[in-house]
Each structure stands twice: as structure tokens, then as C-alpha cells.
Amino acid sequence: MTVLVTGGAGYIGSHTVALLRQRGRDVVIYDSLELGRPEATLGAPLVVGDIADAELVKATVAEHGVDAVIHFAAYKAAGESMEQPGRYFANNVAKTNTFLDAAREVGVPRIVFSSSCSVYGTPTCLPVDETHPLAPESPYAESKRMVEDMLRWYSVAHDLRSVSLRYFNAAGAAASGLIGEDWTVTLNLVPLVMKAALGRVPQLTVFGTDYPTRDGTGVRDYVHVDDLADAHVRALEYLEAGGETTAVNLGTGVGSTVREVLDCAREVSGVDIPSLDAPRRPGDPAEVYGDNRRAHELLGWRADRNLSTIMASAWQWHSTHPDGYDAAT
Ligand code: WQD
Questions:
Q1: Best mutation site among 211, 258, 289 for ligand 1, i.e. most ligand atoms within 8 A of its Cβ?
Q2: Options 3.40.50.720, 3.90.550.10, 3.40.50.1100, 3.40.30.10; CATH of 2-171+222-250
Q3: How far, in Å, is the centroid of ligand 1 from the Cα of 284?
Q4: Who has the most CB within 10 Å: 40, 113, 137, 300?
Q5: What's the 122 CA to ligand 1 centre distance in angstroms?
Q6: Residue 238 pLDDT greater than 90, yes or no
Q7: What is the pTM of this model?
Q8: pLDDT tens-digit readout, 143-197
Q9: Contact 193, 23 (CB under 8 A)
């Protein structure tokens, strides 16, 4: 049977599609290509459409014999969502609701949902485990919590079970070097460090050097995108084996500071990447890293790749694709 991957032409989606196919699973990507790139699909079957186009969703499920969905399609910039909450709730929540009803109506029994550690807000204790209170601090994070809540009720009312995967900081690129992050659609640290390394921006701006952390800069849990892809396949297998609806953290359990990321990037690239210390970015917690014991217990998942591997894979991708998918060197 086939896995339908919404947003499968995007960053984590394309890496998950590649792994599913590598493991012999049939896949169909469903992507509007508003943010996704057809080059990232590596030739996988692609249906270009809006997740709220119920008739196309139902037709795609029927035509491809879909019996599972991995739902990535969403807007993901927390800062942008603070300025455009309506756009985020319309796209990430309302459209997902229409999508879920269409999938349910044609009997899709299981969904893996791309959620986020940002549902926890600023941690009140570390490491963050799944019992930590949910306190979203942006419309983006709120939209992820709302869909998780929807999925819990769909599980109660219908035979539609799901796993919501709460990513910490996704980073890096496929070991194959064929796909990676499209840095035109992200403001995250690692792609910005790579832009500075390649001279696409004058320097990396370090947001905050006075945090109560080991070197004064922000701490985050960077998890390799290939490790995240593995977790999605395992979550699918958990549901196929009859697993109940739940939510799981995906992090390494290890925090890295901005300076450590920058130093690691300098080491793997051989470039003395310029940086500029600046005031804290509003809304940034000092320290966030995850407790991944539940992912190991429930899915048998462990993040195998460390920060050095993450940064080396990011450098391999960005240095050979300085214009992303537009032109490889
Ligand atoms: C990381 C650190 C910044 C840019 C992300 C996703 C969010 C969620 C959680 C999935 C912070 C610092 C950054 C820069 C910097 N994941 N920084 N200079 O804010 O942790 O959130 O992970 O849903 O969606 O956005 O990620 O990469 O923006 O910041 O100093 O130019 O790097 O202050 O400490 P964040 P980020």
C-alpha cells in the first residue's frame, strides 16, 4: 500500500520520502509547490495540489491505494506567524481540518503528523519531556497544538490513529548530498551560518551573548534531518502494528550553543566565518533541549548523528548548491 506525504517536496518531507523509497515503500507526494521544490522529489510520484482540495485528496487516495499519510504541509516561521496569525491558522489548521475529513471519508486509517517542540513554549524544566505543559508562544506553535488536539478527537470519533512528532531543531542535509534545506525559505541558524560561510551574507549575527548558558549564547537541540526521517518511518510502523494515538519528542537530548554551532561550522568548512554579537532576539528562550526516552521506548528511535555530522552534511549540501535547487555547482 502507498504512503501519501503532504509537503513531501519540502525540507523534512523530501528526506522522509527518500528514506521511505529507499526502504521499498510506495509513496505519492502531495504538495502545492508554494514552498516545496519539484527537484527535491527525486522523481517520486507527485500530485500538485492544495491540501484543502478535498476532491483531489480523495481521488489521489483512491488512485494510489493510500493507506497512510505523513502530513508535513504547513507554514513554519514562528516570527512570521506573529505578524500574520490568520494566514497561519487558515493554512496550518483550517486546511488541515478539511484534509483530515477528506482522508477519513475515504478510509485512511493512520496519520503521522509533523508537530513541533514549540508547542511547549519556554521550558519550565529541562530536558523537555512529553508531560511538560503545552504553552505555545506563537500562532505557528499554537497551530501545531491545535492540530494535535484535532487528531486526538479524530482518533476518539473515527478509526483514525496518529502520532504527532514534536521536532526540536531540524538541521543538516541528506548524506547522499542530493537534497537539503532550501535556504530561501528559512531564518534558522544553521542555513544562516552556511550563508555566512559562503559569503552570501556579510556575517552571522549572534542573537544574545548574555544568556545564563555555558558561553552566554542560546542552547538548542539540533537533530539531523535524516534522523527525523527515520523517526517518521518508525512512527508509521508503530501505527501499522496497532499503536495508539500519541505525541513523541524528536531531539537528541543534547543542547548546543550558538557559538558551538558556529565553531563547528568553521571546522567543517575550513572558513573563518565572520560573526557579529547582537542583542537577544525577542521571544527566544535561553535553553531548549528534549528528552527522547519516549521515542526510544515507543518507536525504538535514537538520533544517531551528532552536531559535527549535522554541520558537515549541511556544508556538503550548501557548498555544492549555493543557489539551492536552482543551480548545482
Ligand atoms: C536557534 C538559535 C537563536 C538565527 C526552531 C524552529 C521552530 C521549532 C524549534 C520546529 C536561537 C539563534 C538564530 C541567527 C542566532 N522547530 N540564532 N542567529 O528559534 O530555536 O526555533 O526550532 O518546528 O519551528 O524555528 O530556531 O534556528 O531560529 O534559532 O543567533 O541568525 O540560534 O537565537 O538561540 P528556534 P532558530
A1: 258
A2: 3.40.50.720
A3: 8
A4: 40
A5: 13
A6: yes
A7: 0.97
A8: 999 999 999 999 999 989 999 999 999 999 999 999 999 888 678 999 999 999 9
A9: no
